Amino acid sequence: MVVDQLSESEVDRLFHALADSTRRSIVVRAISGEHSVSSLAASYAMSFAAVQKHVAVLEQASLVTKEKRGREQIVRANRETVRKARQLLDEYEKIWRQRADRIADILAEDSED
Amino acid sequence: MVVDQLSESEVDRLFHALADSTRRSIVVRAISGEHSVSSLAASYAMSFAAVQKHVAVLEQASLVTKEKRGREQIVRANRETVRKARQLLDEYEKIWRQRADRIADILAEDSED
DNA sequence: CTGATCTACAACCATTTGGTTGTAGATTAT
DNA sequence: ATAATCTACAACCAAATGGTTGTAGATCAG
């Protein structure tokens, strides 16, 4: 294990936040440039309050941060969190490799006798 | 884009399936070796039916498959789906790099004059 | 100062989620 | 044949989710 900087419930929040297309879209837009909550909200066929809630979910998952600028809140994506999520899935793929290695070892031992 | 073999709702299901520690645990165990639903269920402090539902969620997300063997159902993890999830997050990280490149290009153009 | 804009947040509602228990069908073991 | 095991699935329930509208506080523009 290398990536376990995240508790189980943080991982829960992280993947849950990513499990909604509106939220993923917000993350992509926040990666690409700076946006206020209201400018983001203008893009979606739902109320400002609904988008505000989505941003809050992303914020609790540390996928974005908000920074007050005048009367606006600027939403920025958090690169590190996306990296951690990817690394988590990398770990899963690593388990497969370990399993394959383990099986290969056993086969090698068999042929040693 | 390279990874878009998945529809938005499939991605929803995929991340939603990963957003639960019991389900992630089941995936890890299914990666490591073969398990029936009931042998998996024995590990968790919840009913068999609850675990059965978790497996169903993983199955709908294509994270695992079930194969009938006698009266048991063997649960196997689907390596390809985990890879797709990781690649999706890779794409996000790629957007950051593209943004950085774009900014670098603009700075280069500025200094060309 | 007044009005427009941006945000925060509460209250409400329908649907989904994650758990339960209970019943029933298949398969295996005695 | 009977009993035990494994699975499927329905019905139910509390809590969370994802949306709404409405109200109110800050900030900016005229």
Automatic annotation (TrEMBL), chains A, B:
Q: Which residues form a coiled coil?
A: none
Keyword annotations: DNA-binding
Residue span(s) of domain HTH arsR-type = 3-97
Q: Which InterPro entries match?
A: ArsR-like_HTH, HTH_ArsR_DNA-bd_dom, WH-like_DNA-bd_sf, WH_DNA-bd_sf
Which terms does the record give in the GO molecular function aspect? DNA binding; DNA-binding transcription factor activity
> Entry's NCBIfam families?
HTH_metalloreg
What is the recorded name of this protein? DNA-binding transcriptional regulator, ArsR family
